[in-house]
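Quick log. Single chain, no ligands specified.
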Amino acid sequence: MDSGFTTQTPIPLFWRADGPAGAPPLLLLHGGPGAHHDYLYPQMLALAARHRVITYDQRGGGQSRTDDPTPITWEVQAADLSSVIREFGLDTESGPTLVGYSWGALLAMLYAGHAATRGWPVPSRLVLISPAPITRAWRAEFETALAERGRSEVIATMREALATSGLRERDPAAYRQRGFELSVAGYFADPTRATALTPFRVTGKVQQSVWESLGDFDLRPLLRAITIPAIVIHGREDPIPLASAEEVATCLRAPLVVLDACGHVPYVEQPHRLFSAITHFLESPPSP
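-> predicted structure:
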């Protein structure tokens, strides 16, 4: 692994790179917004077996936090992405391959849809994993579904067991870990699988400012104008509506891979099927 801080972005952004130095590069975009790259690992390192995987903590999260009071918007994040692409020499004639997860997939779509008109390097391919909702209405559906899952009998029982376990006094670190697992359990088809997710934190101020910057968004017109090859991968039991992912695939004229027995975290819940689909897409010649 190599790591450091960018020098060609308005503020330094923490980055890391894994995999053979001469392998085809992938630029991996984490979710959030306001999170950091760590929680995609170690599972997403499977991509580094055949590629040079470059990722970074987006502005405002992880090791890329800033004291700058200027609101962080989707446009700020997209402009940062453009600078990262140039800094790592990915602005070649063929363009970079963007692999986006959740909010990172939405960022990849926003970037690809505006790249040509803003003078940003145009990506060559998009791998969109569990993409965040592409309309405000679907985002509202997601928020409702996630809240309902958090109140489910299974998760409520797990919370009660933790509350009465005495773990908080015996082992505070283990108690915090278990608390994190319960906070994300609703994202999983099987809530018990949350134990395999690397803990992370979201900077709430960044998350709020990015979503506010999108307003009453509907990305479908933007997506219909994107012509680069893409693949969409989505869990059937993801709290993000499957209809949103289906519309992404339709607008981009891209294949949609729906993973059964899978929620929002396919790299934990269905890693073999996820990475098999990605590898097949990346190694196949682009469709006309």
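The first strand starts at residue 2 and ends at 5.
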